[in-house]
Write a structure and sequence with these properties.
Blueprint: H1 7-10, H2 20-46, H3 64-86, H4 90-109, H5 115-134, H6 137-144
Length: 147
């Protein structure tokens, strides 16, 4: 009789591997991205002349106060979800992927105002999505074992 392809297929538990590090990386990136969003939001709220274009040059024509609040709220949500991912919560992984996708879209819409920063944020969002989707299952087992 052939053995299952993975221990998870048979229901057996497996020791977490070093891939758990990608989840820790993803959660730390989420905390950092949240901080970056918050900083970008504060700049938009207090120094809207800092950006390369006015509100008419943006993909979505909103004033910088609206963009500032969007980035600030998104930053808090991203950072809080990143902390929850560290605790191995399944809802946090799913929410983290959705929020990282939303963060990438927000940065895509804000690209004209701050191209280099927005491109960097989109790249980090993609890394977070990859880490949470590919290696997310091992974090809960690591937390249960006290790693």
């Amino acid at each position: 009789m052939d053995e299952p392809a993975t221990p998870y297929a048979s229901g057996a538990e497996e020791e977490p591997t070093l891939w758990v590090g990608w989840i820790v990386f993803g959660s730390m990136m989420m905390i950092m991205l949240g901080t970056f969003h918050a900083i970008q939001g504060l700049v938009a709220l207090f120094r809207d002349e800092y950006f390369l274009v006015g509100k008419n040059g943006l993909t979505i024509e909103l004033d910088f106060t609206a963009w500032g609040w969007t980035h600030l709220v998104l930053g808090v949500v991203v950072a809080a979800t990143g902390v929850a991912v560290l605790y191995g919560q399944m809802w946090a992984r799913v929410t983290g992927v959705v929020i990282a996708m939303f963060s990438a879209l927000v940065n895509l819409a804000f690209l004209a105002a701050y191209p280099l920063w927005s491109t960097m944020m989109i790249a980090l969002d993609v890394l977070v999505i990859w880490a949470l989707t590919v290696h997310g299952g091992e974090m809960k087992a690591a937390r249960q074992r006290g790693y």
